[in-house]
Amino acid sequence: MTRHSIFTHANPTTGKKDGKSPGVPVLAWLLLAALAVAPLGFSSAFYVHLAILICLNIFIVSGLALLTRTGQLSLCHAAFVGIGAYVSVLAQMRLGIPFLAAAALGTIAASLVAYLLGSAILRLRGVYFVLITFAFGELFRLLMLDAASVTGGANGIARIPAASLLGVALDTRKAFYCLAAVLAVASIAFLVAFFRTPKGHALNAVGENPGLAESSGISVRKSQLFAFTVGSGMAGLGGVLLSRYVGYISPESFSAQVSIAAIIMLVVGGRMSIAGPLIGALIMTPLPELFRGAVQSQNIFYGVSLILILRFLPKGIASLSVLRRLTGERL
Amino acid sequence: MDISFLLGQALTNGLIIGLLYLLMAIGFTLVFGVMRIANFAHGEFYMLGAFIAFICVTQWGLPYMLSVLVAFVLTLLLGWLLEIVILKPFRGDELNGLIATLGLGMVIQNVALMVFGPDPQSMPPAAEGVVTLGKIVMPLSRLYVVAFSAVVLVALYVFLMHSKAGRALRAVVQDMEIASSYGIRSSAAYPLGFALGVALAAIAGALMAPVFSVSPFIGGAPLFKAFIVVVLGGLGSIGGAVLASLLLGISESLGSTFFDGSTADMLIFALVILVLVIRPTGLLGRAEH
Amino acid sequence: MIKQSLVLAGLLALAGTAGAQETLKIGAVLALSGPGAAWGQGMQYAAQFAADDVNAKGGLEVGGKKYKVEIIAYDDKYQANEAMTAVNRLIFDDKVKYIIGPTGSAPALAIQPVTEKNKVIIMTLAFTAKAMGADKPYTFRPVLTTVETAGPQVAWISNTLGIKKVGGLFVSDESGQQQHEWLTKAYSDAGIPLAASEFFDRDRVDMMPLITRLMAKGVEAIELNGISPTTAGLIAKQARELGFKGRFIRSGGPATAEIVNVAGAKAVEGMIVYTQFDPDDPQVKAYAKRYNDKYRKPMNGFSPSFYDGTHMLFQAMAKAGTVTDTDQVRAALESIKDYPGILGNTSWTGQQMYGINHQVDTPFYLSEVVAGKEVIRARCTTAGCQ
Question: Which domains does chain C have, with CATH numbers?
Answer without folding.
Answer: 12-143+281-349 (3.40.50.2300), 146-275+366-385 (3.40.50.2300)
